[in-house]
Write a structure and sequence with these properties.
The chain has 132 residues and is mostly helical. 53% of the residues lie in helices and 3% in strands. A hairpin with a 2-residue loop joins strand 1 and strand 2.
């Protein structure tokens, strides 16, 4: 048992290291942000005149936001060629829905014919050269 004011940044660092061992950098950053928000809440709610121990440089540097990966975007011609070269009709339709509607694979696979309703008839007669 210890007083709230006696908690040091080094103790929090070791706690967060233990808590987030083996996790992704983004998850580690999230746990740090949650702990910092908790301390801010306690300090404001209780009217304590202390500095948030999570604001220490050792913590903010160790649990930095990871750099975002740059996504490679394919040009329209490449996507059209990939779709056209797909032999399986099901796969071709899935790729069409992903490319043209922006659906993710999970969303495409969960689509049901009943959900399409009358819109099913509004699709063009062919998808990338396939007659429907």
């Amino acid at each position: 048992e210890c007083k709230f004011e006696s908690i040091k940044p080094e103790s929090l660092y070791h706690f967060l290291e233990f808590l987030t061992e083996g996790l992704a950098k983004a998850t580690r950053r999230l746990r740090y942000a949650q702990l910092k928000a908790f301390y801010n809440f306690i300090i404001e709610t209780c009217g304590l005149e202390i500095k948030n121990p999570c604001s220490a440089p050792i913590l903010s540097k160790s649990f930095r936001m990871p750099k975002r990966k740059v996504r490679k975007i394919l040009d329209k011609e490449t996507v059209d060629e990939m779709i056209y070269n797909t032999k399986n009709i099901r796969d071709r339709l899935i790729m069409e829905l992903q490319a043209r509607c922006g659906l993710r694979i999970g969303e495409v696979l969960k689509l049901m014919e009943a959900e399409m309703g009358c819109r099913w008839k509004s699709f063009p007669r062919s998808f990338s050269g396939i007659k429907i």
